Amino acid sequence: MKEGLELPPKIISAVRKRKPKPKRVLVHLPAGLAHLAMRISDGLAGTELLFWGEGCYGACDIPHVQARALGCDLVVSVGHSPMRHWNRLAVPTIFVEYFKGRSEDLRIPEISSGSIALVASNQFLHLLKPAKKILEARGKEVFLGKSGVMCSYDGQVTGCDFVAATSVKRKANAVMILGEGDFHSSGLAEACAPLPVYQLDPAQGELKKVEPVKRKKISFLYAKERFGILVSFKPGQEHLALAEAIKRKLESMGKKAVMIAGDAFTPSVRNFSDVQVLITVACPRMFDDDEAYGIPILSAEEVLRALSVGERKKDSFYSQKNS
User: Residue 245 sits in a domain of what CATH number?
Assistant: First the structure.
């Protein structure tokens, strides 16, 4: 059965409730929900709809500038919760969240840890309290951390914000994430090391231990001379001031750096062939895929730690506010 069949009525209702009535709407669907486009279109006859056909990587990736260029007066983001930058978007945006699984079907295999930091990705946030209740009934001590700046709810993590776990990890001897796939869990394992991290897939009832993302060697920062700093205009990834600060710091060390702006960076960035190392001040998880790029990619967080650039902020995955 295809996912999300309950979503079209929610999306249709949300658009119809807008006052004044929008004339042109851009609908931003994750890849797994793109099959809903025809159903949504059928329910909104009389409203001009555009469906975004490129990536949908999270609430940091709202195509708001593109929507304005297309003359849209509303964006509908499906499957994500709003980040705290949402009120800075170029076009009014509404978020239609998507939750998977029922609390009555939740099954949690036994783990030996006595105290657990419990978190969830967006689709499973509604299962946090039922999961906490199950674990506490087994005598476990369970902690739900406060959300970070890239999240909306306590206990929520994204691919770049693990504050809900790191803020309580000293109280726990293990971390459990309700989620699926490896993207959220592998980053979480890296952020919470050396604590063991377990992922429970509520849909499958499977529990597995998660291996952390492997960090790249920060020695590249000192061994190489020519750097490219990737700067994005995505609403949750705008850190131009930080890019400028890193560039100045590298130049003060006698190195060369250029800033490279873009939206969704692809391996074509390797066309900047005189660059030896990339530093991403855009998505901090881009360094997961540097084998595809054929060039080492360091996250800004790694560089900040090594060079002490900027003022540290506990609640952000980068140390400076969005530009």
Answer: 3.40.50.11860
Task: List, in order, residues 6 or more apart from 321 with CB less than 8 Å away.
Answer: 241, 313
Alpha carbon of residue 46 to chain centroid? 34
Q: Which domain holds residue 303?
A: 220-307
Please count the structural domains in the chain: 3
Q: Which H/E stretch holds residue 143? A: strand 141-143
246 located within any domain: yes
Mutual angle of helices 300-307 and 240-252, in 10-degree steps: 40
> Rounded to the nearest 5°, which phi and psi values hold at 223?
-85, -25
Q: Does residue 181 come out as left (phi exceeding 0), alpha (psi in the -120 to 50 range) or beta?
A: left
Tell me, what amino acid is at 56?
Answer: C
283: its two tokens: 């998505």
252 domain residue, yes or no: yes
Please state the length of the chain: 323
Helix segments in 87-239, DSSP class H: 128-137, 163-166, 183-192, 220-223
Residue 53, both tokens: 């056909």
Q: What distances in angstroms separate CA 87 from CA 82, 92, 94, 141, one per listed residue?
A: 9, 8, 10, 37
Confidence of residue 290 (pLDDT cuts 50, 70, 90): confident
Which residue, among 148, 153, 154, 116, has the nearest Cα to 135 in the 3D structure?
A: 116
User: What's the pLDDT tens digit per position in 185-194?
Assistant: 988 998 898 9
Show the tokens assigned to 121. 């990705």
Q: Which of 8, 17, 28 has the alpha carbon at shortest distance from 70? A: 28
